[in-house]
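Annex B, item 7. Sequence and structure tokens for protein A, then protein B.
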Amino acid sequence: MIISIIGGTDGLGKWFARFLRNKGFDIVVTGRDIVKGKNVEKELDVKFINNNIEATKIGDIVIVAVPINITERVIKEVAPHVRGNCVLMDITSIKEIPSKAMEKYTKNNVCVIPTHPMFGPSTPSLKRQVVILTPPKKHYLSNPWFNKIKDFLEKEEARVVIMPPEEHDKIMGVIQGLTHYAYISLGTTLKELNVDIRESRKYASPIYELMINIIARIIGQNPYLYGDIQMHNPQISHIHETFIRECTKIKNIVDKKDREGFANIMKEAAKHFGSETLRGMRYSNKAVGAIIEEIEKLEKSIGKEVGLRHVDSNNIHYGILKDIIDDYIILDKNGKEVKINIANISLMEEKEFNQWKRDNLKRLFYDVSILFKKEVNPDIILKLLKAIYDIEILDIYEGDNIEEGFKSITFRIYSYNREDLNNLKKSFLEVIKNIGGIERYNYST
């Protein structure tokens, strides 16, 4: 099967090219930038064609993955060239306009499946991700292609939602349109008030901190994509007008110092939310708690070796956590200080970090044989030592060259740092001396 992705050299189109190639499909991608296209061809082991129509003609499934503002034009360009009994999809975040265009310009026997993946290109897989399908009824009810694609998504553990395109745009007008509109407006208001964001965080309540983080997340995204979401959803105008009307209503109440009127507005909104009010409080408490808990864990790790996973690249930074200054961690990596923004990393759990070190770092070791009296239980000794060292027993020996009434236990102590290994030798022998052991011989890598 050949899947042609129109606009597959960037963003979510490139994400699907990589994902579907890894699932064994033959992938063709198009894009305006030939150099970028050739690089993607090599990077993903796909075929790049600098011609939308030619790519469309050879695709069993054709996915339009271009910006919203040109989606309708590209559909008009490629739709007539989708072969009979094949599939045409798009992955934009509005659905009425592309749905109508696909229906208008495709052959009657082409399966049309307008699609909205509710995730971005940093998502690792389809697992637990929402994918909305808005097919016309004739394709949803009778075309076998629809069930094949739905089954594939569900097999990859995506949450598939099916709805009419008009209903999709109405709810997305709120979920995306109103959300982005409100938070972008908050961001521009803070700009007009000349608020020093970094300074304001010093006095912030947890809710303000969450609000600032959400604003920053939204305004830091592609502004043209967010503009297109506002400008191309037919439902947005009514939503904007309602939002502005409610803002004006609250302003007038505040200007009049109408305390009861203000309370009534909040009460009515809470009544509309119903049980979701309590749920929202619980989830926001969790979010606030998670931020506090993360900082506390980092503070307790000062002076210790830690593994820090970068949230975007998944790269691991490791070393001694020396200090936390404002929003930054100071990490000692083999004598070199590195400054890392806390927002960009997550602290690895000890078990996960130890496994990563075993898989990725050279493991040095120190072997030492210790004489103990025969009645000593090696398992108890090992359990005691494991609380302090990365250690195992290699050998237990009684016989020639061992003094009567004694046995030799050979331990192997591991470390990933030679200097640290030398320190471990000294401390290990001190511990052994205090529990009645006598050094017999030792060997180091």
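Protein B:
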Amino acid sequence: MENKTNLIDYMRWRGDLSFNQSPFNKIDALILNLVSFLNFENFQIDYPYNQKVNINNLLDSFFSLYPNENKLGLIIPSEIFMVARSIKNCKRYANIKVSNFINKIDQSISEQFSALLFHLDKDNLFVSFRGTDDTLVGWAEDVNLIAEFPVPAQKDARDYLDNIANMYKDKSIYIGGHSKGGNLSVYASIYCNETTQNRIKAVYSFDGPGFMENTVDEKSFNKIKDRIYHIIPNGGIIGRLFSSNKEPTIIKSFYKGLDQHNPFSWEVERDNFKEADAFSKNSNKIKKEIDSLIEKMSDEERKDFAKDLNQYLDSLKQNNLIEFLNLRNVLSLVSNKYKMKHKNIRYILKLYLIFSKYDAIHVKISK
């Protein structure tokens, strides 16, 4: 990858500059958001308490407890550990404090919600919402986005933001998240109380999906719209799902298809992402076909599809994607002990064919 630079390079280039010298920006937000994918339970920073820990001390404690940790599951980039270790070499982040970690998994309502608060300096906070992790509960909740509004994690994100704003009344607030975390960031900024919303400086949705048509309150959205930054790679798929009602910033990625969802593939130049002129042809075709597929489903069909798929996932009694994909192939999935309705199996196969047709996924069947 000649001349391909990403956020790791940014940390090396700009890590010696304080926020006074070079203001907090979208790449900083993404870096801190990726750190929030680490499991900080039992590190005395649990939500909702005002117990703050310096970021370097927190990461030292984490790697002391988990010295050989190098995987976060099937879909979460392992480079996150490199980012976390690199922070110690960056004066830029040396004074950040961390607090209010929450990681909520509730299988009964298909909810996966996690957040972390970064105290950037004496005046500014960054609220970080974690995206979908490796749990099947999280994926079940993602499926529910087509049939339910708001989903439990969205409501919890709004409440978390309001509570944090109430705990630290004199601070300005940045918000951000990757993937579903971006969706939660936007939802929380729209539906938080007015006092909280007035203190928000910027909302960063990093390749986060939007919302089903006619669900978001337009008046509430317009109050925060100009402070929302929707950042999507030029071959983007996830960030183009549903409607965002916000013109995105299209950036360059040196991967293809669904792999562009990996933020370590996003090209960086100085303190910004390299912008692209337009989405790729395949990205546009995939969006058009997925939108068409969803639009043809009635409200009842969407709810039935989400319910059916969730019941199927629950029937497998598997906790994460690695266990889930250990089954031989798509056909073995749909012939499991819980039988999905044929029409819903067809929807899954149609999605698979859309992604395959436009070279967005590469599936290897293990024998």
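Comment on protein B: The first helix runs from residue 7 to 14.
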